[in-house]
């Protein structure tokens, strides 16, 4: 018999998120998750106990310095980076990717090629496309409009000896599909190029292991991973050392990550990040940590299992409605998709549906979700984009059933 797999203890999970004690059901989590209580507590602790500049000799400054460093170290643990110096913290994924593109620019020559997708959030497209103005060649790896897949064969056809970088999403914030990042990395590296992955829509749902994925750059928003409004950019140490900096001219090239953080990162938000991996570790411990298993892996295994049940519930209902078309993989398999589920309804504009649920205090959303190129290429812009229901592990089966009950009245 297979070993018993514990079921996610939802009461325990929801106790960690004070906002879930209110009247609203949150199904717009891909836009921003609810925040863990210890994260907020540590923001307050920093501001009350250590709200001074870093790097001085006096004790309070030393405490502040240690706390900010602890935040970067916690994020290195969360993503299994080899060194906390590989973790750059900043205000948003969009800002960090724009910074990366600007730092990457001097390493390129006219005619060098960059591949982007039409499935990414614009944050991982525009900064690279704009390099066309300076003589770079940008190619687009397009989603198959029938299967909604990014096919590896299509990427291989775009790669040439001049390809320098491929920018791709780990999971589309519209389609919900999990892309095979390790296989993409192997293909890209075989052609001598680098890989930059937007993990914003993936990181709240599954463990990110940058070493196992062998990515060169990886970024995501921490306010979508139960933390504060901050973001993370990982880069392999040797690449970060080689890139020109984004800070003042006198900041040494070896000063990573600081040379990419003008003004430094937000001190209080950085310290608050220490609570995020602690939460996942506590989740594993609560469910009975098994042997030498990595508690973060164990926690995300529990999350995947629960989200698979939510996927099955909602997708089964949507499949049963003849006027509904699911935009993305129609499988509920949590190894193939996260619980971000988009659809359109024949005869209804997408902007008509979410307001009908507002009165029931169920929060969902419609639109292009900054994946405008994808929505345009799929011909969905006249329909006002898609309706998106984005669930995370703190959502319950009962909440999902209540959503289905109200959608039945609408669809």
Kindly list the characteristics that best describe this protein.
411 residues; alpha/beta; Aspartate Aminotransferase, domain 1; Aspartate Aminotransferase, domain 2; 2 domains; 4-stranded antiparallel sheet; 13 strands; PyrdxlP-dep_Trfase_small; Cysteine desulfurase-like protein
Task: Explain what this protein looks like in three dimensions.
The protein has 15 helices and 13 strands. The chain is of the alpha/beta class and 411 residues long. It has two domains: 144 residues, Aspartate Aminotransferase, domain 1, CATH 3.90.1150; 238 residues, Aspartate Aminotransferase, domain 2 (3-Layer(aba) Sandwich), CATH 3.40.640.10. α12 runs parallel beside α15. The two termini are 42 Å apart. The model has no long low-confidence stretch (mean pLDDT 96). This is Cysteine desulfurase-like protein.
Q: What proportion of the residues is helical, as a percent range?
A: 25-40%
Helix and strand composition category: alpha/beta
So what's the overall shape? globular
- The number of helical elements comes to 15
Reported by name, the CATH topology of the largest domain is Aspartate Aminotransferase, domain 2
Alpha carbon gap, first and last residue: 42 Å
The tally of strands reads 13
| Radius of gyration from the alpha-carbon trace, in angstroms | 22 Å
Query: What is the highest CATH level, the class of the largest domain?
Result: Alpha Beta
As laid out across the biggest beta sheet, the strand order is 2-8-7-6-5-3-4
The CATH architecture name of the largest domain reads 3-Layer(aba) Sandwich
> What fraction of residues sit in β-strands?
5-15%
Q: Quick one: biggest sheet?
A: 7 strands, mixed
What's the structural domain tally?
Answer: 2
User: What is the CATH superfamily label of the largest domain?
Assistant: Type I PLP-dependent aspartate aminotransferase-like (Major domain)
């Amino acid at each position: 018999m297979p070993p018993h797999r514990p079921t996610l203890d939802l009461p325990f999970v929801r106790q960690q998120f004070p906002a879930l004690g209110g009247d609203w059901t949150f199904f717009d989590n891909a836009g921003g998750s609810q925040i863990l209580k210890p994260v907020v507590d540590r923001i307050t602790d920093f501001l009350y106990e250590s709200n001074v500049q870093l790097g001085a000799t006096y004790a309070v400054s030393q405490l502040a310095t240690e706390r900010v460093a602890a935040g970067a170290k916690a994020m290195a643990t969360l993503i299994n980076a080899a060194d906390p110096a590989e973790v750059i913290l900043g205000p948003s994924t969009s800002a960090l990717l724009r910074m990366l593109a600007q730092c990457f620019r001097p390493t390129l020559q006219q005619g060098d090629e960059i591949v982007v997708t039409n499935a990414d959030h614009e944050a991982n497209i525009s900064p690279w496309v704009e390099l066309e103005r300076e003589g770079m060649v940008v190619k687009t790896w397009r989603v198959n409009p029938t299967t909604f897949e990014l096919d590896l064969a299509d990427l291989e056809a775009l790669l040439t000896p001049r390809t320098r970088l491929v920018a791709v999403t780990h999971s589309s914030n519209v389609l919900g599909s999990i892309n095979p990042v390790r296989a993409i990395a192997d293909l890209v590296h075989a052609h001598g190029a680098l890989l930059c992955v937007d993990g914003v829509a993936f990181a709240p749902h599954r463990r990110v292991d940058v070493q196992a994925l062998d990515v060169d750059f990886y970024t995501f928003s921490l306010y979508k991973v139960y933390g504060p409004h901050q973001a993370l950019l990982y880069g392999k140490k040797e690449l970060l050392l080689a890139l020109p900096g984004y800070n003042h001219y006198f900041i040494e090239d070896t000063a990573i990550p600081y040379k990419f953080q003008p003004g430094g990162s937000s001190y209080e938000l950085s310290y608050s990040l220490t609570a995020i991996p602690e939460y996942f570790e506590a989740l594993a411990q609560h469910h009975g940590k098994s042997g030498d298993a990595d508690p973060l892996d164990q926690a995300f295994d529990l999350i995947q299992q629960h989200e698979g049940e939510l996927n099955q519930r909602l997708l089964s209902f949507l499949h049963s409605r003849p006027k509904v078309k699911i935009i993305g993989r129609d499988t509920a398999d949590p190894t193939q998709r996260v619980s971000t589920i988009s659809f359109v309804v024949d005869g209804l504009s997408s902007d008509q549906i979410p307001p009908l649920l507002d009165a029931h205090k169920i929060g969902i959303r419609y639109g292009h979700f900054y994946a405008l190129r994808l929505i345009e290429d799929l011909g969905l812009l006249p329909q006002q984009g898609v309706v998106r229901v984005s669930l995370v592990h703190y959502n319950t089966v009962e909440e999902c059933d209540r959503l289905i009950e109200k959608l039945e009245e609408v669809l």
